[in-house]
Amino acid sequence: MILQDVENLRKAAQEYMHPEVGVVVTDSTACARCYFDRASAPEQETVEYAEERRMALADAAALKKLAVDYMHPEVGVVVTDSTACARCYFDRASAPEQETVEYAEERRMALADAAALKKLAVDYMHPEVGVVVTDSTACARCYFDRASAPEQETVEYAEERRMALADAAALKKLAVDYMHPEVGVVVTDSTACARCYFDRASAPEQETAEYAEERRMALADAAALKKLAVDYMHPEVGVVVTDSTACARCYFDRASAPEQETAEYAEERRMALADAAALKKLAVDYMHPEVGVVVTDSTACARCYFDRASAPEQETAEYAEERRMALADAAALKKLAVDYMHPEVGVVVTDSTACARCYFDRASAPEQETVEYAEERRMALADAAALKKLAVDYMHPEVGVVVTDSTACARCYFDRASAPEQETAEYAEERRMALADAAALKKLAVDYMHPEVGVVVTDSTACARCYFDRASAPTQPSFTEPKASTTSTHTVQLKPKDAKTNVSSSKEVVASKRLPTHREANIIRKSASAVQLYGLDEDHDDSASFF
């Protein structure tokens, strides 16, 4: 019956583990409804649909990987081939130079300023262009027809001004001809001729064009240097421009300029320094009374501060000497105390022949650790402290990270987008209960499979009777070792304890060697009803043979 139960359990386990194996029946009239084809069964996807879904998910995963690689170029590429190598797209030799964030921000601000300046210039240069407004209720008066507009000149006045400018242009041309005689005269009459004023025999020597050009460039450089020197030495002088539309950012008021002290602060600092200078002069006069007073008034006179009638009593020379000796003794005691408290400070001597035995190197001195050992011990303690901190951070992830930088930020390792899905508290509780049930089942199976293992109790007063030795226990057969025979078979004699029955059975067994005992075979006897519970019996080898 036990073997039949084992066979039934094995058959049930195989049918549960391999549902794809069909059911074999011997009754031709038997019929059943398929579990997977029943009307209430969930709809099963076809093989083609499953393959398409797998391909779609694979494409989505590849696209996600490409998107992550594109969006996060700072993340390194992980390879499994140690021989693989590649050059970085951004660091390659032919890569265009990348501008920094600060430079890009400055360029954006410069372009915004240029766009605003361009708009102002266009509005100023083209007043005929109408103003475009989006508010239909907006209105304005004409700039040129307003009451405060400057007076417009008449046509006659404009004509006179034109003629005056033409006369000025003619005078300018005459002045240029006079100031620059080296410039040739352009004529339109091919028959005109004249003797050159500058090439006549009595003309003074003229400098060459190259020398004049060099002198002009030298004077221009000197003028530019003078202008730079003036701008540097006198930053308070404003910049003079002739373009009314020109604008610029002040060097001293820019956002990145160092903080400038205010006029009030500068005045206070000047007064503080003046007070400090006066105090210093008073301190010098007080500390050095032997320094005479310098006066420029020959008629000035005064009485001595120290010899006046109201002057405090002066100490005698003897008292001053005693005070000096007391202070010298105190200084010597202080030096001794420092030497005692700081033996690591070396002794300074002025006598080159002086010698002494070192207190720390004497024969009876305790052993001192070397500098290398002390350094190794310090490094070991530092490593231990770092490991302890890592262990605490690993064991206690609930402890927050303490930072001193208020601008530091980070994303949570457990809440990041790529974090593995966390199980809920309900799921964890169910898993704990399932593992507890499995552990209990395993313990029951071990107790059933290994009855020879004793029961461990912690109560010294607990007692129980043996299941197999109880009075109502069924009679157990005893095995006797068969005698050697010349034939290839032998008969195992089973003798019951009460000698009431005598059962014999003959089976073919190997008789060349006797059956090993439990200690010789180093195995554990199992009952005939042992059942392998699919990995629950990890403490004992279930693959051993039944005896």
Model description:
- The protein has 547 residues and is mainly alpha-helical.
- The longest helix is centred in the N-terminal third of the chain and has 25 residues, at 47-71.
- The protein is built from ten helices and three strands, in the order H-H-H-H-H-H-H-H-H-E-E-E-H.
- It has helices spanning 2-17, 47-71, 101-125, 155-179, 209-233, 263-287, 317-341, 371-395, 425-449, 518-521; strands spanning 477-479, 492-496, 503-505.
- Strands 1-2-3 form a three-stranded antiparallel sheet, with no helix packed on it.
Helix share bin:
40-55%
Number of strands: 3
Gap between N and C termini: 17 Å
Strand fraction: under 5%
Strand sequence of the main sheet, in spatial order? 1-2-3
Series of H and E elements: HHHHHHHHHEEEH
Question: Roughly what is the average pLDDT, rounded to an integer?
Answer: 82
What tags apply to this protein structure?
547 residues, mainly alpha, three-stranded antiparallel sheet, 10 helices, 2% strand, flat
